[in-house]
Amino acid sequence: MIINHPILGPRDSQEFVYLGDAALIDRPDGLAEGALDTFHDYLYLRDNPAGLHRELWYHEQGDRSWLVVTRNTLTHEITQVELARDVARARGRSK
Amino acid sequence: MTQSNRIPGGQIDRSRSLSFTFDGVTYQGHPGDTLASALLANGQRLMGRSFKYHRPRGPISAGSEEPNALVELRGGARREPNTRATVVELFDGLSAESQNRWPSLKFDAMAVNDRLSNFFTAGFYYKTFMWPKAFWEKLYEPIIRRAAGLGSLSREEDPDQYDKGFLHCDLLIIGAGPAGLMAALTAGRAGARVILADEDFRMGGRLNAETHEVGGLTGADWAAQAVAELRSMANVRMMPRTTIIGAMDHGIYAAVERVSDHLPVPLPGKPRQILWRIYSHRAILAGGATERPIAFENNDRPGILLAGSLRAYANRWGVAVGRRVAVFTNNDDGLRTASDLKAKGMEVRVIDARKGEEVVDTAGRLGLSSVTIRSGGRTETFACEALAVSGGWNPNVNIASHHRGRPVWNDTIAAFVPGQGDIPGLEAAGAAAGRFSTRAALETGAAAAEGALADLGRSAPARDLPTAEDGPYAITPKWYVGGGKGRAWIDQQNDVTLKDVKLAHQENYTSVEHLKRYTTLGMATDQGKTGNVLGLAVMASLTGKSIPQTGTTVYRPPYTPVAMGTLAGRSRGQEFKPKRLTPSHKWASEQGAVFVEVGQWLRTQWLPRAGETQWRESVDREVLATRKSVGICDVTTLGKIDIQGTDAGAFLDKVYANTFSTLAVGKCRYGLMLREDGIVYDDGTTARLGQNEYVMTTTTANAVLVFRNLEYARQCLYPDMDVQLISTTEAWAQFSVAGPNARKLLQKLVDQDISDAELPYMGCREITVCGGLRARIFRISFSGELAYEIAVPTRYGDALIRELVEQGREFDAVVYGTEALGVMRVEKGHVAGNELNGQSTALNMGLGKMVSKKKDSIGMVLSQREGMNDPNGYRLVGVKPVDPAQKLTAGSHFLEKGAAPVIANDLGWLTSVVHSPHLGCSIALGYLKKGDERRGQRLRSANLLAGAEVEVEIVSPHFFDPEGERLRG
């Protein structure tokens, strides 16, 4: 597969390490009330769609960017590639 | 031997003769020959024995689809089994052997199987060798494997090199027949970067095998002219002898280039084959079509060939398989074989299935001698040496179907064609698209290239097609000749007959995937290139379904067989994975050190001295000398990560379970890292070198993973933190210097004062050594001794180990390896890999209090889960044998005295066992249920596998200096 890196352009997927569902970005607050339950759901309950999937890829043999890649798991078509940092910020993460 | 069957014409170089042997007999051929064409030219139709029935077989094709003519090529370590004689390019000195026969090809004792064929129908093995079950592996299977089968391996190391390479292009064209050449000319003339790959050594495809003209030239000459023009273009890469074996994602294709297979041995420095990864923007499949047989009785004798192949042997190679030829066809293309052979002076008789004529039987033990036909209710037998069969042509849809797309049935040509858009960016042209005339091939080739150019934003040159034949291809499907009692072959490689397909149908294996597995139709080296469509057509007629309803099996890469060595490339032996050497490696090698693989690293395991015959002597000496005076160990392999930024401390508080933001500048702290699920992930010492600068160490095994996770936390979880990371594992050579004399030794090298007052326990400093070389010193201890780790830029590592050893002479300093390191850490009760096993919590390790609940760190929340905080759960303990003479065994399980060794009574296990020279006995660490409450208890440690059982005493894991007085000294 070829991943169109937002900074470096098209790169072979061999340069990357795959992690999984980009929902991992939405890590709950560990000090909040009921954290044990929210963390359980966060860590163990994830979708495994046959179709479009937003997933985390790490450019380990490259610039070390974590990317959010939107990929169709049936066809391997990649429709969007974003820097995970931008996605995290857009989802309200900061420090 | 003479080339008795050689006739004039063809694209062979008759000015040179090549000598080769087959089954020890020497023959002559010419450059341009394949092994099969040369053998046929010498009148040798018999080339092999079939898989199951050991039937005499010759080639049925002239290409990579060949099911029968499999030979062992070359000898010694280069022996290659199951090589298709039809694609082996002849070279001088080639030697080949037939396979699957004993004692000889002409007389094969196992041919008795053929007489017993009634017993060997589909499913025979499954039904017959069912019972008793244990006999399958030990008795039945080895016998069956010896009796049936293909070639054998050399069992020697492959002496050749294989390479991998990467290519990029605008347009990849698969196949260099008329469609591929025309596409390449169109795209090449437009300036696009083109790769033209063809599995044959001579480009041109069917143009080399036909007699009709293209652009006023012979087809072969027109092809040669096109190839010459393409070769002159800098933007076109011509790749003959290159098979595209698979269509991957996003325009990536895998290709095998046979660089040296046409030579006796590869030229010096050249690989035998290259596995290419081709990146293309667009691709054209111009891979042609494969002819299919018709099933009739005894249709597998040497001399019975596919019609197009028989014609190719005559036209391209100047070979007459026989002088008297019968042609059995259901389409117009078969008639072309008849007319071409007639023009070459052969006696030809046509049996046209469309006129109700059919071949009902053949004769000839080791080769065809006569054919029996039926026409208008009348049967007739006549003598002939060759029978050309054409059941029609199947477009080579394989590559276009590699993404699980199913090909589409086309009634006009009675064959499957590639589905539209099954592979984005790939278009089929010519015969591969079901367009069989030369004119149509040229036209669709040009059109496909024009389409690709438009997609690429390039303008195509004006279309300039040469004149070419545009004859009809009228076909009336004819799959098999019914009515007979004998066997009619569908898949010759796997000896699958009409009867087997009928049996599969009777037993309800009617789906094509079941049909394949039950009968083995379409398996092995040819993957059913000639037999598959015929087999499923027969199944369709039995079930009363249409062929498209019956469907095809899934097409998967590789298109043709690939040598394992090609897939491995250079990744074998010492080069299987990268090897990382420590800065002290050269010095240690000079000392005769024993090395151990730790991930990719080679680390010193111990350093034997003269007279030491057993590893324990060396390790005990290293431990005792370190504890008595001073020892040096290369710890460069531990991961080192520089962490800088105004939020560096806050960042570490997130990734470590304990707190680092409060660490004073110039101090180190042991850090515990959890996974998000609360299990311990990694540990190490992290030092604060400045207000905004830390240096983290990780375990050797997790150096890469921890770095990856830190980047994950930094970018995905805390994107606004001001923190930067860089791995410095390879930037610093780091040595542990441990023992009562460690400070005295180091002070000789360090330019600054490192007294206890200046550099107390857990202190760190940036210093200089040896008169100005920048270095770092950390007063940390894994061994429990007064100890330091000293780091210098890696290029000074070799000098530093030599200097440490030199300066250490007055203290009798030793250099110790990973074994002594392990002994000392167990004596001190430090956890390492065996305890950080991916199942253990901080609480299990006795480090539960390190997990701060005041801050949100990775793993903090889930480490509080009830199940992980079971008061009856595992705790880290120290273990000693009650009788010091007894040895402990790692992996042994704890049991109460008198308890049966069953899982219900299991109390835990020993994780790490060493011999402690300090205590003079075997000691261990282990996880024991309620271990913290069991100090002083006596239990049994049982290892059922080793048959060992030892009475043990549970003690503190800190066997040595439990108060830590030595390391603070």
From TrEMBL, chain A:
- Pfam families documented for this protein: SoxD (PF04267)
Question: Could you state a single Gene Ontology molecular function term?
Answer: sarcosine oxidase activity
Listed under GO biological process in this entry are: tetrahydrofolate metabolic process
Matching Gene3D superfamilies, A to Z? Folate-binding superfamily
Protein name, per record: Heterotetrameric sarcosine oxidase delta subunit
- Which species expresses this protein natively? Gemmobacter caeni
Q: What taxonomic lineage is listed for the species of origin?
A: Bacteria, Pseudomonadati, Pseudomonadota, Alphaproteobacteria, Rhodobacterales
From TrEMBL, chain B:
Query: Pfam families annotated for this entry?
Result: FAD_oxidored, Fer2_4, GCV_T, GCV_T_C, SO_alpha_A3
Q: Which SUPFAM superfamilies match?
A: Aminomethyltransferase beta-barrel domain, FAD/NAD(P)-binding domain, Folate-binding domain
Q: Which residues form the SoxA A3 domain?
A: 485-570
The record's keywords, sorted A to Z, are:
Oxidoreductase
Q: Which InterPro entries match?
A: 2Fe-2S-bd_N, FAD/NAD-bd_sf, GcvT/YgfZ/DmdA, GcvT/YgfZ_C, GcvT_C, GCVT_N, Sarcosine_oxidase_asu, SoxA_A3
Citing just one GO molecular function, the answer is: sarcosine oxidase activity
Q: Where is the GCVT N-terminal domain?
A: 585-855
One GO biological process from the UniProt record? tetrahydrofolate metabolic process
- In this chain the Aminomethyltransferase C-terminal domain maps to 875-961
Concerning its family, UniProt says:
Belongs to the GcvT family.
PANTHER family in the record, alphabetically? Answer: AMINOMETHYLTRANSFERASE, AMINOMETHYLTRANSFERASE, MITOCHONDRIAL
Protein name per Swiss-Prot or TrEMBL = N-methylglutamate dehydrogenase subunit C
Organism of this sequence: Gemmobacter caeni
